[in-house]
Task: structure prediction
Amino acid sequence: MIRKSFLSVLGLFLAGTASAEWGLNMPKGVTELSAETYGLHMMVFWWCVAIGIVVFGIMIVSLFLHRKSRGVEPAQFSHNTTAEVVWTAVPVVILLVMAVPAAETMIKLEDSRDPDLSIVVTGYQWKWHYRYQDEDIEFFSNLARSSLDARRKGSEVDPFSVENYLLDVDRPVVVPVGAKVRLLLTANDVIHSWWVPDLAIKKDAIPGMINETWFRAEQVGTYRGQCTELCGKDHGYMPVVVEVVEPEAYLAWVDNQRETGERLAANP
Amino acid sequence: MTTAVAGGHEAHDDHGPAKGLKRWLYATNHKDIGTMYLIFSLLMFFVGGAMALVVRSELMQPGLQFVHPEFFNQMTTMHALIMVFGAVMPAFVGLANWMIPMMIGAPDMALPRMNNWSFWILPVAFGLLLSTLFMPGGAPAGGWTMYPPLILQTGDAFPFLIFSVHLMGLSSIMGAINVIVTILNMRAPGMTLLKMPMFVWTWLITAYLLIAVMPVLAGAVTMLLTDQFFGTSFFLAAGGGDPVLFQHIFWFFGHPEVYIMILPAFGVVSEIIPTFSRKPLFGYDSMVYAASSIAFLSFIVWAHHMFTVGMPLSGQLFFMFATMLIAVPTGVKVFNWIATMWRGAMTFETPMLFALAFVFLFTIGGFSGLMLAIAPADVQYHDTYFVVAHFHYVLVPGSIFAIMAAGYYWLPKWTGNMYNETLGKWHFWLSTIFVNLTFFPMHFLGLAGMPRRIPDYGTQFADFNFWASIGAMGFGFSQILFVIVVWQCVRGGEKATDKVWERPIGLEWTLPSPAPYHSFTTPPNLEAKEAKA
Result:
């Protein structure tokens, strides 16, 4: 019986590694802070693994050695001051080792001073609105058409045939690589939350409040995320897409957006 | 005249349970009320479980196959409310009702009529809550956390939700008062506080937590009610209110609430492991202090549920450090259980198997809890399946396995019959395998970026969701075995001895099996027993 359950657990792990290519772990991301966050995550994870090996190891040894079927006579001790002091003090030390770097990263995360660029992000049921503070650019960002058609119940469109199913939008946020981007988040109706794992940014967009956060992407690319605060029936259908581009490409995009804006203003 | 009085008195002394429906409707006997609590919670466990299976069926594959997003959200919300308030909490109250008087040598609970009331409120509360499924706009769909402004978009169900939460709170508070009064006033002579069984201790602490936080929840939902219907703006920004205020109040209730659901589980496991290790519980005093510190810390960590709402840095650091501290007393508990097993003479009957799985799997939930305490990492984990994995590990193979363990451990005492050990072991192994298959992949899903509470997901999450759904079906259907085992055990089977197990500790094992309808009408003399031992 025991052997059988071990085999099935083993099978589970094998199944896990087989699908490793599409992500078992937190992404390292493309900002200094996402890498630090990943580092913290892994540090605590390995501490947990180490503690787990010791604690579960002792427990498993006990499960095999100290069983009645081996004819052992049970000991009757119920106290050991030394052991109790050790297993109270050692965890405190380990926690201190974890707490210091975690606090350091936390302090950096909260420092959104001197941004190169500010974007006001407003959550709506169920889409995002972006307004570039200094550029006179604003637009809504909706779930992309392809996903919109496939997501309906009984649509008979295979989600696997849709590229970036549920994680694509009609108009992404575009930011220059290497720039410190400050986000000012609020919401129009209910609470939403703006998350892009690769940027290690998650901040609630709350009606009546303005929250602040920031990122500095160090790699050109397209980064995807989703709303992470339950916001009603289409909570699962308001993705976030951030395109990080070279500064020249960004400037070209800004000009293009302005022209489109003016054209729309002229012929509403 | 004298004879008549004496006769009447005698009849009173001897009376067994009333006949028929009256026995249950007018019940004041702690054993009857305990039984009703346990049956009710088992029923709710299946209702909430069915809802979980709707959720997992929909999530088995990407795309929408079975339900619309509106209904999906109703299912996640109702699943949580029913499991938390309808399954786990009443199960522990049921165990408290049955066991506390028997463990402290009392004839009954201190306040039997209130006991009746606190149980019978529950079916009404859940009747109200479940009736919302058939209302215009459907059941509440804003999550069990009921965050405004979203929860204010609930349809006709809204006031029913609020009133059912009020009723659940009333029931819990009355149950808690009863437990405290019973423990503080009705212990057998010689049973000092520090001689009480660990299950009684953890329930005493839990009861204080309940009294402290259930009124806070009631206040929070009442403010929602007045915001909706009476023109207040506690949580509405447009009227000068603050949506985040609700979250602070809710989690001031919500974090102690998670310890309300786990402390009695600690107590159960602390009863079972010594029995089957044939060795006294290691570090009794430190167990009491650890449980008390956990209870205290639970009041100053609430905002670790809110690291993304935009708190000041100092606040985030405080809540991070305070949360990490909880690992210390929790660690002490786990170490004490393992030290209890060490050099014991263990056997592995079903209650022990569930208790051991509890220690293993609750600890895994503790590890992910420690990871979640690290605020910058929590920003990544928050509201993803990593959190779902974490709290299901502490609640399912945590609290619910402890409840199962308690069921198997005390069933022979309750019914006078041994349960079917083979079926019990099947139930254990199937549950353990499937619970891990369900919840372990969720860690990966969350880390890879899948938010919680979504009815559909990107195709890169498909494999693990498929396995989790298979696991959930397996776990759900395995629980039918538990019903079969309990049913068989109630109907008959091998007669249990008074001690049931080889070397159990505690007053409940000095009573006959099944425990008589009225037990300890005169308190046991502990000093004499100790002298004999």
